[in-house]
């Protein structure tokens, strides 16, 4: 075997395996820093750092596509609010009340939520296998949210953190569906920069108000590391590697690699957070993944998941 194919093989493995690892790290670091950096401060700091790093690379794309943004103002605004603001704020808020493991398991529901919202809101056709897979995955979601205890359903005693994170996944599903309506010729690098700017403009008054209420970061090195990590590694590193994965392996294989997030998450949360893996975690993930695989039997090709704003 020549050296070049071998190098390309390892390059493909790296670009497929690293983005979900970086996104899993986002949950781990946010959970670990929950008592050091309030959710709004973590979101605001994350995207400010990401914008500073991204701006030199995105500037030419923004200049080129500026008129295109104005042709689709509501889609640009909607994708900004659902990804940069809602998705991340709800996740960081939810991780104050639930384990990172739960958050990453619920992250796996995005494909079925895209199908459900696409059918209910955007009138997309839901095929038989997709409907069956959707139902199976939602049962898995219920298992995770109920913590394996059916009595919680009767008492409506759900974990607030799980519900917040599930709401974040709903926001990401809307983001995905709206993003597919933006023309492919609009650079996603430039679009991400514009989304971050819009997100920061909207977030800033809420962040300042949150600070005035006394929800201020603890000025220690661990807090600074948390903000720097989420601002660079999952925000930009994973995004750039994921784009390369789509280029080398195709959107199908690249999106399937996202299911490595719970696997990485279980390992990392056990090692760094001391979280325990319970039987209901395994059962919930098996049902969610089974539903995704069942829905994939539909002959209609799935829309690729764009994961850049995580």
Automatic annotation (TrEMBL):
Keyword Cytoplasm set for record: no
Record protein name field: DMT family transporter
Protein localization: Membrane
Domain EamA: 13-145, 160-295
Organism of this sequence: Thioclava litoralis
Keywords: Membrane, Transmembrane, Transmembrane helix
Transmembrane regions listed in the UniProt entry: 12-32, 44-62, 74-93, 105-122, 129-148, 163-182, 189-208, 220-242, 254-273, 279-296
Keyword Transmembrane: yes
Family: Belongs to the EamA transporter family.
């Amino acid at each position: 075997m020549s050296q070049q194919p071998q190098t390309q093989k390892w390059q493909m493995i790296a670009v497929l395996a690293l983005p979900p690892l970086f996104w899993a790290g986002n949950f781990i670091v946010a959970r670990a820093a929950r008592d050091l950096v309030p959710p709004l401060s973590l979101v605001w700091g994350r995207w400010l750092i990401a914008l500073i790093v991204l701006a030199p690379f995105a500037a030419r794309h923004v200049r080129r596509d500026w008129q295109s943004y104005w042709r689709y103002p509501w889609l640009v605004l909607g994708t900004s609010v659902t990804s940069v603001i809602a998705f991340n704020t709800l996740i960081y808020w939810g991780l104050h009340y639930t384990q990172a493991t739960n958050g990453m398991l619920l992250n796996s529901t995005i494909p079925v939520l895209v199908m459900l919202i696409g059918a209910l809101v955007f009138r997309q056709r839901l095929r038989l296998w997709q409907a069956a897979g959707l139902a199976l995955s939602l049962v898995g979601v219920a298992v995770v949210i109920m913590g394996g205890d059916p009595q919680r359903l009767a008492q409506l005693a759900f974990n607030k953190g799980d519900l917040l994170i599930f709401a974040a996944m709903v926001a990401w599903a809307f983001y995905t569906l709206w993003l597919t309506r933006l023309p492919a010729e609009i650079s996603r690098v430039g679009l991400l920069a514009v989304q971050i700017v819009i997100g920061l403009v909207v977030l800033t008054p809420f962040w300042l108000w949150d600070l005035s209420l006394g929800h201020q970061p603890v000025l220690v090195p661990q807090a600074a590391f948390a903000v720097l990590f989420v601002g660079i590694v999952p925000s930009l590193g994973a995004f750039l590697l994921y784009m390369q994965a789509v280029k080398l392996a195709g959107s199908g294989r690249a999106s399937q690699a996202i299911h490595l997030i719970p696997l990485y998450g279980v390992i990392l949360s056990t090692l760094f957070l001391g979280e325990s893996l319970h039987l209901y975690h395994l059962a919930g993930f098996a049902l969610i993944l089974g539903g995704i695989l069942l829905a994939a039997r539909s002959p209609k090709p799935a829309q690729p998941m764009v994961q850049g704003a995580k």
